[in-house]
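User: Round two. Same drill as before: sequence, then structure, for each protein.

Assistant: Same drill it is. First protein:
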Amino acid sequence: QPSQLPLCNSPVSSLCVTLKCLPLYNGSVSSLNITLHWHPLYNGSVSSLNITLHWPPLYNSPVSSFCITLQSALCITAQWGAFVHEFSGSLCTTGVPNYRKIPYSENTRPGTVTSTFGLVKPEVNFIVTSQSNYTTSPVNNSYCRDVQDRLLTVSLKKRYSEDYYIQTVNDLQNCTWHKRPEERSKFRLDLSSCCNGVKNFIVSQNNTSVGINITYEVESKKRILITEEIYRMLPKSQPFDGTPFKQCAVVGNGGILANSGCGVEIDQSDFVFRCNLPPTSGNVSVDVGNKTNLVTVNPSIISQKYRKLNKVKNVFLKYVSNYGNSLLLLPAFSYSSNTAISFEVHRVLEKNQAKQKAVFFHPNYLKNLAKFWKGKGVRAYRLSTGLMITSAAMELCEEVILYGFWPFSKDLEGKPISHHYYDNMLPKPGFHAMPKEFYQVLQLHHKGVLRLQIGKCEKR
């Protein structure tokens, strides 16, 4: 809202502003809101304002609008192409109204708004370009409040289409993201009170002891006795020296990461979490980076791809060597069927003096975490690995950025994409509540608790 008071007793009063806005390229929403406080000089001989608005509506965009409000306007005329429309006080359009239906092209004459208070007409130019950059797109605060209101009124009892979520993300992309330390601290306190991931994220010698029985996370009627042998497998304490980390990246495996160019940005993080042994070497590193500090391991991958480590140990060891000095996190105590495979991974890594170390989710942490998210409306057979890791990162890190969190079959422009950046294998239907989880992530993004990176990363 640029404003300027004219000089007292000045014979000329004028305002000159250049405003560059960056609406989403091929986005579903493109809008511009301008409010000018224009005070013609009291008893001045000349006081004038001329606005030329260059507003290219986005091609194929269902909404492309501008809204101009002028205070102290005496007579205002708006011209779009060959059409003239008089208005008083403000002019707002949605798309190109019926009486201004002009095909967009580079040769289309821009709309002009002229308000004359005197003899001289200095200009105020508003230049709008169609180029995507969500972190710098200035949008009216009321617009972002509308987006927030829509997020707050979403019912998690209803099912929403992919298009609804994609539309919502496009809307959020128009609002500049700001981290909000007070919201971040509040959410972190709630998580800590419930789950205390700093002390209980991983089973360690300081949160369990020999001779106790641990109840499995999902199979609540089954228990496992912590023997001396199992106890020796456990780290002495939580293996996260230096916490809280300043900035963490939680890298999901969504197809949205393909061609994102986010690799450099991810690798600049202080701590990088990954899920389910994803590929990071070769051409994909440009998009997903190489750095890994912790990566989860689904025991089913060990069973299916590495035949429970029978006769293919070297293949497994060579693959995980790409993760450097990382922690391999396994759900050894979620299902009883996971235990032997998880212990075998630990044994193979230790016996072969691998740089990677196997650690295990604490089942009590995961059970408490499920209750925490259930209280927020996420009801599923089990939380996704991505949400588990994001939750832990929120306690272990000062700032959290999510990459590759995109459970949809289309990108922001509606183009089909694969489920993962490396394959198109879909999850079991109904096993995870992906849309509801994604909604929670959107909420946290909008509140400034974490940042959700969607689309291409900027070169820094």
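Second protein:
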Amino acid sequence: GATWVTGKLGGEGLEQLASLPFDLRVSPPGGRKFVDDLLVVHANPFDEYQQLAPSASDAELRDILGDTRAAVIAFGHIHIAYQRVIDGIQLIDVSAVGNPKDEDLCSKWGLCRWDVETTTWMTELRYVPYPLAETLAQMEASGMPNWSKAATKLQRATYREQ
């Protein structure tokens, strides 16, 4: 698994990944306040692992978000696309283009755009067909270790073991 991926990325690819920022803050035009920003993170504003799960209670989300201030927090990590508002912050899980975990094999991606008329971020989730057969063929041809196990997980499209 990880050794194979590391080998495929090579030193330059690993350096590029290591150079990526932890988060990206996008401010709307016009020098607005930072609370109007779009904050893009992998899992949450503080670490790469703790989940902003769709089933989490408001209290659990508040605990994870802490004193984070932004109009929108866009994230992925759990591969379950959803939107939710907590304390005035729009949460949008913009994943997953691949390896979905919501039992729907469509690719999902999120769009966040600043609306100058309403002076707010507009968010939406978009769904497109996933090229499953092509992906499975690429997995097999890639030399990926245990590719058939990964293929089964991909086709299952859930965290649950079946």
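The first helix runs from residue 2 to 19.

User: Perfect.
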